[in-house]
Amino acid sequence: MIQINELTKIYKLTKKQMMEHKTKKNMMKAVDNISLTAKPGEIYGLLGPNGAGKTTALRCISTLLKPTEGEIKVCGYDTVKDSENVRKKIGFLTNEIKLDPQFSPRYMFDFFGKLRGLDEETIKQRREKLFAYFGINGFEDKKINELSSGMKQKASIAVSLIHDPEVIIFDEPTTGLDIVTARSVTDYLKLMKDQGKTVIISTHIMTEAEKLCDKIGIIIKGQLTLEGSLEEILTETNTKDLEDAFFELYKQHNKEEA
Amino acid sequence: MEGTKNIIKKELTRVFTDKKLIVSLFILPGVLIMVMYSIMGSLISNLQEDIETHTPIICIKNAPEDLMNFIEANKYEADITYLSSTDTVDDIKEKILKGDTDLLVVFEEGFMDTIQNYSKIGDPIPEVKTFYNPSEDYSGAARSNFIAEVLNPYQQSLLAQRLDNIELLQVFYIDLDPEASIILDEDKAGGKFFAMLLPFLINIMLFQGAMGLGVDTITGEKERGTIASMLLSPIKRSQIVFGKLISLGILTALSSVIYTVSVVIGIKNLSGGDTDQMMAIKFTPVEIIQLFVIIIAMVYLYVAMVALVAVYARTQKEASTYVTPLYILVMLGSIMTMFSSGGGDKGLEYYAIPIYNGSVTIQNLLVGELTMAQFGVTLGSLALIAILLTTLITKAFNSERVMFNA
User: Fold this and answer.
1) pTM across the whole model
2) Which of A127, A198, B339, B397 could cysteine-pair with B237, CB 3.0–4.6 Å?
3) Å between A255 CA and nearest CA of chain B
4) Cβ contact (<8 Å) for A97 and B232?
5) Do A150 and A181 contact (CB within 8 A), yes or no?
């Protein structure tokens, strides 16, 4: 269970970052007063364009960033006060977090297993299961820097799931994957959902959100503009598919801002 | 501590399974240091040998008649040209300037007459002038040898002729047997040369090791995005920091051992195999423990210094730039001990200055003068600063701004 309560995240910008963002303000609100709940046995999808604040929100859930305002609870643990317990419960995957290229997927898997306090036997069982599922066996002993980006992504996914986490947080999990591997990842997430785990993903791929998510939250410029099941969103926006719904909301939001 | 142990194991595996890293971190610098010192050694000994075997080219003007016989009788070997009083010496001086001739010796006109006519105080005393070029090794050596082997004995012989009994000039002797006069603590004397050199070398080598490794394992990992995966593990950030620092410390200590051994082998070649001085350094068991403890503390200090800079830097290039002033600081701290004969006479407060204290403590150990109080103050100060640095690094590891540029 993930409960986000009025989460706001403000970044202080350096002069260089201010120039990059073409702004004169030295603060940037990446996430603006978001509240949402992701329940066990459910896949929650955060949908939004690049820079909308999806990754920041997920990083806050995974304890890597601290909320500027508001609070987040994962399985009842506060992400700031009880971050270690939160980290025990979650499996987090994001593009910017990488595995040491000097090692093989197998070494990395075992290393993070030990770091999470798992015993040899459990690590072995989990490795056999996950490596077989994601087809890592063929390259498990190759150095990560010799692998293709798809292979690296598979290895990262396996490592993030090593401890069979209760809560799965995947930031754009199918980016860079071929259609077959992407399917195996989404199938695995469904499997996790069926096992009663809480899954939250971010994506900008509409069809992925449509097919996979039980609940969708649309984020535009840091704000959660609409939340609900696919049907609820389509009814609310009076559209036929998610892409139309998204653009409808995008237009509305920009109009309000203007 | 299980987390720390796992991280140490991973960090060491990372280095020792990478052949390129082993070569660039340990083997290449070691070999280079050894080769550098050996080449320096052979060049110096070649130079000395060359000067010793060179036959000096000397011109002597107005030489007294018996000088030639005197030179032959003394078996002084040189290529000597005798000039008469009408010969000019300008072209010879030009040759000395160019290095073609080594020495010009000019006896005063009527040299022998002036000497023989001397009878009372105030009578003229003749002069022998030498012209040489101190920037030419051959020329400098030719002059000092000529004075020592020809002019001084010649003067003695003339004195003997004048006085009949030359012992009249000798009121007393000083040290007829100079060897017997030396009362020496061999340990201390042996340590002295290395007490000057070793603390400097140890300091520099330790810091160099920490510098190369620290930037890669911290800033490098930050840049590559691999450190974040560790931050997601349910262990305390301090455990990650300790894991990083201890593994860095082990690698730094190892590299500095290799570098120091290379320097010692190099110096052995440099001094033509004469390492008696080094062998003469003897330690008591307590001193060995003290040395070990101090070096461990210094390794940790340097590793922590580099790590602190590395964790704040965004790129490896930036980190290398930031580390340079620290390197200069370490050099300064250790150079200060090179030009003093140990800190034995210094107040205890000097032993509280980090970097300098490590260096001066090792120096005192080598000459066997380290007191327990000095050792205690040094260790206390190093431990204090190590705790401070570790706290700052842990804080940085907890800071999202530092770790994720957020």
Assistant:
1) 0.78
2) B397
3) 30
4) yes
5) yes
